[in-house]
Write a structure and sequence with these properties.
Blueprint lengths: L4 E2 L9 H9 L19 H18 L5 E6 L2 H13 L4 E6 L2 H10 L4 E7 L22 E5 L1 E2 L4 E2 L11 E4 L16 E5 L10 E6 L16 H6 L9 H16 L2 H22 L4 E2 L10 E5 L3 H13 L2 E2 L10 E4 L6 H18 L1
Parallel strand pairs: 1-13, 3-4, 3-5, 5-8, 8-9
Antiparallel strand pairs: 2-10, 6-7, 9-10, 11-12, 12-14
Length: 359
């Protein structure tokens, strides 16, 4: 059976070249006589893998020297607790609520600190990024948290809030590596791997050095950034194979021209789909135009039965995982880095055929 076009929000499609390299090295990595999955994380062979992975991350994302790159576990969801435990000296933080993950991040932080909601788009099912009233910002907050790209709702922060001296913290799980980002504008960036980085199981945290070593009293050892920074992400056994896969993905991105090339590739894909949606008589995008994501594109017909029928048609044609999140309904096309332009063109082709049959 031929590979399908996988529009899943995560775990998501991976570059075919990366999968083929991983397959060729599965039984034996280099001349080590063993698979990466079998290697001791204390071995010189594995140390070289994790070192190269970090080096590629720094190169591809242009990460400044005063930031640490941590390879952790627990997903972005664990960072909802780790961020306040590590950053909250005064016990206060600002939050922009732009989707379910931002809500969950705030709810988790509220177990430890006072959380000030400065803006929300919940009034319109998170279909837009709200404007900011800076007078509502807490100038003495420990940090300001945003979810930069909202996977479920298909919105993206095209303009960052001006937080001054307050560290900006961003969940970038579904937009990391999709375009260049100025890391120096953030105190902490974190991302689950299962969208643009590699397979599930790895969480990447990029944290400014001055924000390490300030964990609240009683913070568990494993939830202290200093524990992992001091031990090169090897205080315990890291997700070794996921880090190896991350290394391959980063090498693939570099070979394609880096994040500037990824951005152009992603803009072309998104334009194909959005242009059709803007002119369709049947399908409609659910996001306000100035808030649209390049990575996640939700859309509907307005008829639940038609939506179901369309998803079935796509599956029959090798386009899978297009069902939208239950809170939005309809369809969602997640078009991460590894989704080829041909996949989006095929989707639009099916949409055109389906529209002609149902108008």
């Amino acid at each position: 059976m031929a590979r399908v076009y996988n529009f899943s929000a995560g775990p998501a499609t991976l570059p075919e070249e990366v999968l083929k390299t991983a397959a060729s090295e599965l039984v034996e990595y280099g001349d080590s006589g063993q698979s990466v999955m079998e290697m001791s994380h204390r071995s010189k062979e594995y140390q070289a893998i994790i070192d190269e992975c970090e080096s590629l991350f720094r190169e591809v994302m242009s990460i400044p020297d005063n930031y640490r790159v941590l390879f952790l576990q627990g997903g972005a969801s664990l960072q909802f607790a780790m961020v306040p435990l590590n950053l909250a000296k005064k016990g206060r933080a600002d939050f922009a609520i732009t989707g379910q993950w931002a809500k969950k991040a705030r709810a988790e932080a509220a177990k430890f600190i006072d959380c000030n909601v400065v803006s929300s788009s919940e009034d319109k099912t998170f279909s837009y990024i709200p404007k900011f009233d800076e007078s509502k910002f807490d100038k003495d907050a420990d940090y300001f948290h945003i979810c930069m790209n909202n996977t479920i709702y298909g919105t993206y922060f095209h303009q960052l809030p001006n937080t001054g001296d307050v560290p900006l913290v961003a969940d970038i799980s579904s937009c990391i590596l999709s375009e260049p980002i100025d890391v120096s504008k953030f105190g902490v960036l974190y991302a689950g791997a299962q969208k643009n980085i590699g397979p599930a199981g790895l969480t990447v945290v990029i944290v400014r050095e001055d924000l390490i070593g300030n964990a609240r009293e009683g913070t568990p050892t494993m939830l202290d950034y200093k524990t992992h920074a001091d031990n090169g992400s090897m205080f315990n056994t890291p997700p070794t194979y996921a880090i190896y896969m991350c290394k391959l993905v980063l090498a693939w991105i570099k070979s394609k021209g880096g994040l500037s090339a990824m951005a152009e590739h992603n803009k072309k894909k998104a334009a194909i789909l959005y242009d059709f949606l803007d002119n369709s008589k049947l399908f409609k995008g659910t996001v306000e135009k100035d808030s649209r994501s390049l990575m996640n594109v939700p859309f509907v017909t307005g008829d639940a039965d038609l939506d179901k029928k369309f998803i079935e048609r796509c599956t029959e044609n090798g386009l899978v995982n297009l069902k939208g999140h239950r809170s939005v309904g309809g369809m969602r096309a997640s078009i991460y880095n590894a989704m080829p332009i041909k996949g989006v063109e095929k989707l639009v082709e099916i949409m055109k055929e389906f529209e002609a049959e149902n108008i």
